[in-house]
Amino acid sequence: MFGYVKPVQAELLVKEYEFYKATYCGVCRSMKRITGALSNLLHSYDSVFLALIRMLYIPDSEISAGRGRCVAHPMKPKAMLNTNSATDYTARAFAILTYHKLKDDIKDERMLRRMATGMLRPIYSSAGKRADLSRLSEIAEEKLGAITALEESKHIGVDEPAGLFGELLGAVFSFGLEGADARITYQCGYHLGKFIYAADAAEDYEKDRVSGSYNPYVLMYDGRLLSDENKSTIKCALLLECRELESAVNLLPFGKRATIENIIKNIIYLGLPKRIEFLDKKEGGTEERQNNE
After folding, report:
1. What is the pLDDT of residues 101-149, one digit of tens each?
2. In angstroms, rounded to a whole number, what is the distance separating the alpha carbons of residues 46 and 250?
3. Which of 80, 164, 197, 229 has its CA 20 to 30 A from that of 206?
4. What span, in angstroms and rounded, lies between the C-alpha atoms of 237 and 3?
5. What's the pTM value of the predicted model, to 2 decimals?
6. In degrees, to the nearest 5, what angle opens at C-alpha 64 toward C-alphas 63 and 65?
7. Which of 171, 26, 141 has the alpha carbon at shortest distance from 91?
8. What is the distance between the alpha carbons of residues 167 and 113, in angstroms, rounded to a whole number?
9. pLDDT band of 285, cuts 50, 70, 90
10. CB neighbours (10 Å) of residue 22?
11. By C-alpha distance, which of 88, 59, 81, 90 is closest to 189?
């Protein structure tokens, strides 16, 4: 999910950060067991947020940790969450998301990137099939296909494609849950998805402006250098999405699971806003000033 969904480590207790890393390892172990030993090639810390939320809906007895070694860290044992139904679901869901994202990347990217993506696709094609969540796979294909159609039509405006990505993550977060649980987790995924799509477009603005790649903000601002006012407008919209996400997160059934609660709230209160600090750089408006001289 683009590397946006991370906590601010300095604001976590040591035990909280250890649990966060152990959850990452737990998802990785689920990936190896369920979707294949190579399916974790693109594993990222973004998956932890989903796993943590899904753990709120499983019994305490399912959540335990041990210590072990892995290929990435063979010399020193580290804390690893024992796999559970939440880490298993996260592994399946991310295999599906990755597979469908790679399919789109092959169509969209330049030749060298397309070749590298193509080499990974067979791995994730197999992983996606082994994930065995056919309805979720259909939703991913539908939503990403609709986003691609908007991008190919040079759609002006970020709300519609961001909303589609939000609908996809809403489905991922709520899949298999019912009633209020499904509604709350859907809202968590929906607003997170909107934030990720819009933030990614904002971060890629200059690259896409130069290359001519689709970017809703480039079309909205006619390909000009972003002024400080433009950046402030984009950041305010992103922070508003964070507020909506916070409202949904506050309805989650944390109970006595303070460690999970503190990690999740660190991510949304501190991690997401910190990730968009690139919008605070005071370097916009140069082109406008030159045109006025």
Report:
1. 776 654 544 433 443 343 334 444 444 455 567 889 899 999 999 999 9
2. 20
3. 164
4. 19
5. 0.87
6. 140
7. 26
8. 27
9. very low
10. 18
11. 90
